[in-house]
Design goal:
This protein is mostly helical. About 65% of the residues lie in helices and about 5% in strands. The protein has a six-stranded parallel β-sheet with strand order 3-2-1-4-5-6. α16 links the parallel β4 and β5. The longest helix has about 35 residues. The radius of gyration is 28 Å and the shape is globular. The two termini are about 30 Å apart. About 5% of the residues have low confidence.
């Protein structure tokens, strides 16, 4: 559920999204271990557990060997038809599940399917499989929840109350198990908080493990019922929390600042203390967020106008870029650019120009319109440059008071217009002279002007 929601909200490639998926993968690894030893939990025997792990290793070796030596040749042959490749991949997964359930192996189908998925991920076609299989996945998820609902008995206050109590305990413990660990390891409070919000529910594997545990006689039906209610409540809650995770984080930050007191805002949300007294008197250009366009701008400044670097101040929540920026003479502050209180304390000085170069499609919890409004509120005398994805949004930003609006499509079209016009002029000139119409020198001049291999760009 979490991965599906992150994918729908285009957050899989964000730092919190990657951390969330990484934690889920780590949970899956532990799920393999639990599924392996679960049949022997009632009467644990060292030899039995070792035999189970040996069979897991054998199954993994078989799966990876097939993936390495057998399946590539089959997929190459079947690559002319995506549908055939998908059917073959699914058939292979079912084959691995059947192999695992053989009496002399004795592993569960859930464990085998997990190993099969890991093996499929090694293929170059895995992205295509994910794209095609999601409809089947969603169908089986629907059946999973139908079956889950059918197991829920007639609601009574006691069962729902216990499920709600367990859900509250899970939500209370999550910050200790995720937020605290990520924060202590240097992930920052933003990354830690959003990953914690994303993982506010319990895993579907908990239901699988408890269902198998009831079949093995480890738990009774009442325990499974409580867990089903807990899972249902948290699944509904987390589906909304993931959609509004950045807003929830913003509200928690504002609440924390009110509790801690306004005087601690600057200390808690900014990290640029290397300036004398924390002042940025000459830093009158502020970049809200630091991504590819800002990185290229800093690289161009460094090569062509190095004196401008002394005027730039960056506010962002990615701490890993700050050492590189400081090496180039750019000051920076760690903070949430969507918070007016943070921006007031992130820069001390006269701001003349504010730039937001990140499009709305890559911003989370805020958009360029909101950044424009905040910038005008915090620095009313400053000129503000923002970014739009389309003409309608650009018009809306100009109406809201933007001094200039960046549009990538428009800038690219203007550049192509110059190239095509120059190319056409040379074509006409060479045609009149009766010369060869190969005009590589036209493109060569543009390439030379746009060479950026000499620029020391910052990886973002």
């Amino acid at each position: 559920i979490v991965v599906k929601l992150l994918s729908e909200h285009a957050e899989m490639d964000t730092a919190p999204g990657r951390l969330t998926v990484g934690i889920l993968i780590f949970q899956d690894i532990w799920a393999i271990i639990v599924l392996a030893i679960q049949p022997d939990l009632a009467n644990p025997q060292v030899l039995g557990i070792l035999r189970t792990f040996a069979m897991i290793a054998v199954l993994a070796i078989v799966a990876l060997a097939y993936a390495k030596f057998v399946m590539p040749a089959i997929f190459v042959f079947a690559s002319r038809s995506i549908e055939l490749m998908l059917i073959i991949a699914l058939a292979w997964c079912f084959f691995m599940c059947c192999l695992a359930t053989l009496p002399f192996i004795g592993l569960s189908m859930e464990l085998a399917s997990l190993i099969s998925g890991v093996a499929l991920a090694t293929f170059p076609y895995s992205a295509e499989f994910n794209g095609k299989i999601k409809y089947i996945r969603d169908f089986f998820i629907t059946l999973f929840f139908v079956g889950l609902g059918m197991q829920i008995p007639v609601p009574d206050f006691a069962a729902v109350g216990r499920g709600l109590l367990v859900a509250v305990v899970v939500l209370a413990v999550r910050p200790i198990g995720i937020f605290l660990v990520v924060f202590v390891l240097g992930g920052g409070h933003r990354l830690a908080a959003i990953a914690t919000i994303n993982l506010s529910q319990i895993s579907e594997f908990a239901l699988v493990i408890c269902s198998l545990g009831m079949n093995y006689g480890h738990i009774d039906e009442e325990t499974l019922t409580i867990l089903i209610w807990t899972f249902s409540l948290l699944a509904i809650l987390s589906s909304y929390m993931i959609g509004f995770n950045y807003r929830i984080y913003g509200m928690l930050c504002r609440f924390g600042r009110r509790v801690a007191g306004r005087s601690s805002i600057g200390k808690g949300d900014t990290s640029d203390q290397h300036e004398e007294g924390g002042d940025h008197v000459d830093r009158n250009i502020v970049l809200l967020g630091f991504h590819k366009i800002a990185a290229m701008l800093i690289a161009h400044f460094e090569h062509h106008e190095p004196h401008l670097l002394a005027k730039v101040h960056v506010i962002d929540f990615h701490e890993h870029i700050m050492p590189e920026l400081r090496k180039r003479g750019v000051t920076c502050a760690y903070g949430d650019i969507s918070s007016p209180d943070v921006l007031e304390h992130a820069h001390h000085g006269d701001v003349r120009l504010v730039i937001s170069s990140i499009p709305d499609s890559m911003l989370r919890g805020v958009d360029n319109l909101r950044l424009l409004q905040i910038s005008k509120q915090v620095w009313p005398q400053a000129d503000v440059i923002v970014t739009a994805d389309n003409p309608r949004q650009a018009h809306m930003l100009y109406e809201a008071g933007a001094d200039y609006v960046l549009r990538m499509a428009k800038l690219c079209a203007e550049r192509l217009h110059v190239i095509i016009a120059d190319h056409s002029t040379h074509c006409v000139h060479h045609h009149h002279l009766g010369e060869e119409l190969k005009l590589n020198h036209v493109f060569q001049s543009f390439r030379q002007n746009e060479q950026d291999h000499h620029l020391k760009n910052i990886n973002v």
